Amino acid sequence: MMLSILTMTAEQEQDARAKAFYLLKKWTSFTFLEYAVGLYRDFLGAYARQLDTPSPNQVELEEAYRHDFLGALVQMDLGIDALRRGLDKRAAYDALMTGSQQAGDLLFGRSALEIGRKYDPFFHSLGLKDTNFADPVYATGFAEGVWIERLIGYALKCTVGIGFTGMLAYGTRADGGTRVFEHWTYESMFEDAPLPAWRYWPPGRSYPAELPPCPPRNESGSGEVCSDQAIPVEGIWEPWFPAGKVGCPSYFLKDSIAHKYLLEGSNDEQVVRWRLLWEDTRYRDGSIPAEEETYFPKPVA
């Protein structure tokens, strides 16, 4: 069922707001992003171990490992270190997204096809498959970890609003084409996977048994920012429509331009007024919020 601000009940809205608020913090958190980088590290560890068994294209595999695959990790490590130290989040996220893009392209992009990695037994043994997005098992083993990391990178890119475009699972455009989105709404955040290979999308969409509530609506228009204006405070903002409806919260980096809101179930972007719900001051004091312990619950003995 598609969630829409035009049709949801008060109970549905309360639940959706709490989940959206939780996910926006999760997708931009040190803990969740470090987990993603760890998946790529695991792949690199398996890659390095497999190099101990010589392949016909051994020289090529070793050069790709040193120059390409490790290069992606360098970018990720720069980003995760900057985030943990409470430095500029825009720069930290940019490094993480750059590394994620590089890693994803090496296994799942055009270069993987042109160089022949999709057909190489070396990469097959790491879980890479010669398949497409119609396959729900798009990758296995360590390569699947890189695919999950790639989806986490996409979620971060969408959350911070830097050049993301994704597919919507429902409906079509006026010209009959696939509907797309650039920013989260209740429709895109809680939709079913638009393609079988994207079955983990959006990644990490799980919640603690006792989900913290979203802060109440910001009824004050003081400090609100209209679409197409600059955001002065880093954090989570909520969109207000002229008729008093309030849409899905969004995360904004400081100095980002406030976007319009793609009304759920439509192709119409609406001008809205954004109001601050929560200022993001995480990691500036060197600590990690206790809430992040809920992102990966420890198993009960």
Q: Can you lay out the helices and strands and say which pair or pack?
A:
Blueprint: H1 10-27, H2 30-50, H3 58-84, H4 89-108, H5 110-115, H6 121-124, H7 141-160, E1 166-172, E2 178-181, H8 186-189, E3 225-226, E4 235-240, E5 250-252, E6 261-262, E7 269-270, E8 273-279
Antiparallel strand pairs: 1-2, 3-8, 4-5, 4-8, 6-7
Helix pairs in contact: 2-3, 2-7, 3-4, 4-7
- Strands across the major sheet, in which order? 3-8-4-5
By helix and strand content, what is the structural category? Answer: alpha+beta
Strand fraction: 5-15%
Q: What Rg is obtained from the alpha carbons, in whole angstroms?
A: 20 Å
**Fraction of helical residues:** 25-40%
Number of helices in the DSSP assignment: 8
Q: Which ranges are low-confidence, i.e. pLDDT below 50, for 5 or more consecutive residues?
A: none
First and last CA, distance: 36 Å
Count of strand segments: 8
Rounded mean pLDDT score: 94
- Dominant shape: globular
The succession of helices and strands, N to C, reads HHHHHHHEEHEEEEEE
Largest sheet: 4 strands, antiparallel
